[in-house]
Amino acid sequence: MAQPILPDDDRELLMLFREENTKEQAYTKIVRKYQERLYWHIRRLVINHEDANDVLQNVFIKVWKYLENFREEANLYTWLYRIATNETLTFLDKEKRRASLSISDEDTGLHNKLKAEKGFDVNKLEWKLQQAIQSLPEKQRIVFTLRYYDEMPYEEMSRVLETSTGALKASYHHAVKKVEQYLKED
């Protein structure tokens, strides 16, 4: 696999981060640059604003801790998305264990969180789409959100999720079919 070419601003931020006197300033710029994209990636998976903020905080704690070890084998945003996805999956697993829910009940739990969200209106298409997405298996839900909302190329997704592009394309295809079916039935 070819070495990715980092955008100049990311390369500069990484160089600044590795210097003790500019480390905090560079970190702050990285947070500002990526926090909104990462927040929405996490939020689409955990549904709840407070949960998304908690997970995002954990993501940036890990970024602070491990950024100087970043080997630039992927784009910075790919590395950040991988951390965000892993932290989100860890959070969802903890939620499942905490509530002692079965897999099928977990989906109902996410549906309940969605319905509890401020402004929820079952008649609005955006909420129907969110319900359809929440009905997907976890892996398909992640692939769908990365592709549909973040428009992430399969090659980048492959690095984030450490899965082949062929498997990701198949997961996305199945997810789209399920979402379409859900929306037709509703």
Q: What is the residue-averaged pLDDT? A: 86
User: What percentage of the residues does DSSP assign to strands (E)?
Assistant: under 5%
Classification by helices and strands: mainly alpha
Return residue spans where pLDDT drops below 50 for at least 5 consecutive residues. Answer: 101-107
Sheet of most strands: none
Domain count: 2
Q: What portion of residues is helical?
A: over 70%
**Helical element count?**
9
The CATH architecture name of the largest domain reads Orthogonal Bundle
Shape type: globular
CATH class of the largest domain: Mainly Alpha
Order of SSEs = HHHHHHHHH
Calculate the terminal CA-CA distance, rounded to whole Å: 43 Å
Cα gyration radius (Å): 18 Å
Report the count of strand segments.
0
Task: Could you tell me the CATH topology label of the largest domain.
Answer: Rna Polymerase Sigma Factor, Chain: A
Q: Which oligomerization state do the chains in this entry correspond to?
A: single chain
What would you say this structure looks like, in words?
This protein is mainly alpha-helical. It has 2 domains: 1-100, Orthogonal Bundle (Rna Polymerase Sigma Factor, Chain: A); 121-186, Orthogonal Bundle (Arc Repressor Mutant, subunit A), CATH 1.10.10. Helices cover 75% and strands 0% of the residues. It contains 9 helices and no strands. It has helices spanning 8-17, 23-46, 49-66, 76-99, 103-116, 125-134, 138-148, 154-161, 165-185. The termini are far apart. The relative contact order is 0.10. The model is unreliable at 101-107 (pLDDT under 50).
